[in-house]
């Protein structure tokens, strides 16, 4: 104990820091090395410190104003908070309990990360070939945040949303979240949901490692294992393959994950383009200018760049 107390904390950190640049950055920011390596493949070594530091910053609450019920401007005026930077439905809540807000209690607003809002909006905004017949699908709907926003937008467009969730408990959460919106909830496996093909728009918000939301659950970084990603990537591709079969020619799929890991993002999209008869559209056209969202047609958000979770999405169109 005397030896320990005689040594300054800076000296201990210097002695304990492992060799290797990525290993050292991971140690300084309390991340497993494999997660630091995963992030570095996307942002590079020069930005890795900032990306890992973003996981240690407390996120502010993002509210979503339900389209057709209340605008973000009205929600901001009612709550005294500021409108969001990117989503037309977002309001930033700096502190407090959102459950205490009257608009939330009345179902006019809810809590939803701004990145998730942009993804749900992209499903409704992506141009389709031919007539939009109003058949929309959320293939992995639980717990229901994106399905609810899609449902609000569908109601304004005269469309309906089918929401698929494999877990009965999570399906009940979706039912509660969507309320009286034009959303039909189905308890089924998205890989074989038993639905009639011909959808115009499909969201595949695939189950993933959740590496993009580590700032919300700091302990999760130590509970996750890199070996899980191989199994998840199989499921992700199977869900995307199912979505392509359910999509009509000329329709669009928005594939998204709350993970920046290339094995769950670009690798899945590139394989789909190669094997499933789809082509990739430019997702950058569906968001406002957010600065750096990656060099590909897909969009990769980051806490340290955009203040959102590290959400990824790509837009795929079924060839006519």
Would you spell out the secondary-structure blueprint of this structure?
Layout: H1 2-6, H2 9-16, H3 21-28, H4 33-43, H5 48-54, E1 61-65, H6 72-79, E2 82-83, E3 90-93, H7 102-105, E4 109-111, H8 114-125, E5 135-138, H9 145-157, E6 160-165, H10 168-178, E7 183-187, E8 199-205, H11 220-223, H12 227-246, E9 247-257, H13 266-275, E10 278-281, E11 299-300, H14 303-306, E12 312-318
Helix pairs in contact: 3-4, 8-9
List keywords for this structure.
19% strand; alpha/beta; Rossmann fold; 4-stranded antiparallel beta sheet; 320 residues; 39% helix; 14 helices
Structure description:
Helices cover 39% and strands 19% of the residues. By secondary structure, it is α/β, with parallel strands linked by helices. The protein has a domain at 114-318: Rossmann fold (3-Layer(aba) Sandwich), CATH 3.40.50. Strands 5, 6, 7, 8, 9, 10, 11 and 12 form an eight-stranded mixed β-sheet that branches. Helix 3 (21-28) crosses helix 4 (33-43) and helix 8 runs parallel beside helix 9 (145-157). The longest helix is centred in the C-terminal third of the chain and has 20 residues, at 227-246. The protein starts with a helix and ends with a strand. 44% of the residues are buried. The model has no long low-confidence stretch (mean pLDDT 94).
